[in-house]
Amino acid sequence: MVDFALQSDGAGRDFNWFELNPRFFLKGQEIDPQDMGNFGSGGVIEYEGRLYMVPRKQMPSLRRLENFWLKLQKGKKESGSKKGGDKIYHLPRHQILELLALRASGYGIRGDEEWKKLCEFYDGLGTKNRELSLPKSVKAELKPYQALGVQWLQDLYNLKLGALLADDMGLGKTLQTLAFLEDLRDKNELGQVLIVVPSSLIFNWQSEIEKFTPKLPLTVFTSKDVDRIGKRLEAKEDLVVITTYGLLMEQENFLSQYRWRVLIFDEAQNLKNITTKRTSAARALTAQFKICLTGTPMENHYGEFYSLVDILVPGSLGKIEDFRRQFVNTDLVSREEIEDLKLKMKPLLLRRTKKEILDQLPEKQETKVSIAFEERQKEIYRDIALAYNQKVQEGILAQGEARVQLQMLTALLRLRQACSDPGALPNVRYEKVPPKLEALKDSVQEIVESGESALVFTQFLQTLEHTAKILSAANIPVFVLHGGIPTKQRQKILSEFNKTAGGAVLVMTLKTGGVGLNLTKASYVFHLEPWWNPSVENQATDRAHRLGQNKAVQVFRYIMHESLEEKIELLKNRKDKKFQSLFATPEKESDLGPGTGALSKEDFDLLLGIK
After folding, report:
1. Is residue 600 in some structural domain?
2. Are residues 237 and 148 in the same domain?
3. How far apart are CA 566 and CA 577, in angstroms?
4. CA angle 546, 548, 552 (to 5 degrees)
């Protein structure tokens, strides 16, 4: 038997160690662990020349105890002895996870109020242990699993631990995080918050905040904002700052000089490699509470998981060299070692899959994802808009609106192509992966790794081919359908997609994928471009959302921020032939015609954003 007496250091809210007084008993008699040959993890305890047999079921917990004791001895800083000669050890706060795991193995640990709070939280993991009361300023009705996620974040914040929220994609990690932040703001505890996101998603976070938590004091940080935001931070103003991973590396010195109240890493798999400059910059930031958001906390090996956890609670998984030796640079990781790791990480990790909470999901859930232009892409888009606008305005003056319809439609087509894939434009050199396709690859990788499948719809053949190439290069099983594929070949492709074991992706154009197919293998649908008519979009989505589908279908629609795609969204309810001619999509250049509806100068100016 082992008895641990635990006392927090009493140094206030930010204390980071406990006082630990361990006492060991063998058959009711207190003993000195230094005199033991071993702790019995091999089935036998040796003490004072006698051997004691250990029941097999107790061996794993004794092994955990032995490992913990050895670590404690290796890094011990004894604070002397109290009355009665009890040895007191200073236990770093990050090692509290090991102590919780020992307690879960059956060891008695007595402690103060701080320890009791930790134990109550640990015992209540995964259960609704209280009613969540959010301020009315949260403009959303949270699902039960989302409310549980917010409670979990609140508890970890109060316990001064970190949080790895690893729900499946589409289950509302952003909403849960924003509800948590808004609750802090409502309680006057917000302080200064830094949110680091991939550059393509910066405007999506903006739009989610405007939609769900508009009272959060939000600002977007760019290189030009060092002085402006620096003054607000120095003034201790409550502030939520959003920046990108690229700017984090570029402005590491500026951002790391502040102690943030909350630090959030979205798509945290970007920090999976502990040796990269990006991860190093993330580790340089200090915060009272850190959150990692990712649907893929581990993609290739346990070292990636270590990287994320060590950002959240540094030192909680020990030294990287020791961890690599045990979990990475080895041909075999035992089940017991995995169980130990899971037990230790249980408080920090929350992951719900779509299958687990299916009863809480609507049959079809739609999400609009606002994506930011990449700089070169933005240049291309702007050049097209300016060049065609000049031609069209001159043509209208010389010939009238009716004679320049084709030019206006061509301009809109080119701009829409620039939004999805600038490299598909005639005479344009663009070698980067476009933001939409980068975001798609990351999302689809997560989906396929979880064993699920997805449909991807695009309106451009060149974009389809480029998408398939990018997904294939990422070792994602991908199938392609378009108008140039003969009917017999299409049936074979569909059959192979449906029979693929595990997750796969089917990329299609509107004309081939919009009607007549039953693709219930997929429960995720991506629309790379908006369509003018909601019924056409729904018809494509219904390839997956139809009779025979036993999963909730999640639909993601990609919209480029500050582009004509946002204007298309505003105009989608207009059902006249003019807009049908505008947005019915050609798979090839020859499909582009003057259309049956006339496009006015005002319509054109609105769509180009030109006043």
Report:
1. yes
2. yes
3. 20
4. 65
Are the C-beta atoms of 555 and 366 separated by less than 8 Å?
Answer: yes
Residue 419 shares a structural domain with residue 540? yes
Q: What's the rounded mean pLDDT across residues 216-240?
A: 94
Main-chain phi, psi angles of 289, to 5 degrees: -150, 130
Token pair of 38 as six digits: 């071993």
Residues 393 and 349 in one domain: no
Whether 184 and 88 share a structural domain: no
Q: Are 129 and 137 in contact (CB under 8 A)?
A: no
**Cα 519 to Cα 57, 70, 157, 512, 555, distances in angstroms:** 48, 55, 43, 13, 14
The total number of structural domains in the chain stands at 3
Residue 560 is encoded by which pair of tokens? 């480029």
Q: What ranges in 6-106 are assigned the alpha helix state H? A: 59-74, 96-104
**DSSP annotation of 374:** P
Contacts for 173 with CB less than 8 Å, ≥ 6 apart: 149, 165, 167, 266, 293, 295
Which one of 357, 384, 407 terminates a domain? 357
Read off the pLDDT of residues 558-603 as tens digits, 9 standing for 90 and up. 999 989 898 887 776 554 444 455 445 444 544 444 444 566 777 7
Question: What is the reported pTM?
Answer: 0.73
Using alpha carbons, select from 344, 316, 342 the residue that is nearest to residue 100.
Answer: 344
225 contacts 178 by C-beta, under 8 angstroms: no
Question: Phi and psi dihedrals of 193, rounded to 5?
Answer: -120, 135
Q: What pLDDT, in 10s, does the model give residues 61-86?
A: 666 666 666 666 655 544 444 444 45
Phi then psi dihedrals of residue 212, to 5 deg: -100, -35
Report helix, strand or coil for 339. Answer: helix
Secondary structure class of 583 (helix, strand, coil): helix
Is the sign of the CA dihedral 187, 188, 193, 195 positive or negative?
A: positive
Q: Residue length, the chain?
A: 611
Give the three-class secondary structure for 602.
helix
**608, 593, 607, 602: which is closest to 405 by C-alpha?**
593
Residues 6 and 78 in one domain: yes
Neighbours of 42 (CB within 10 A): 13
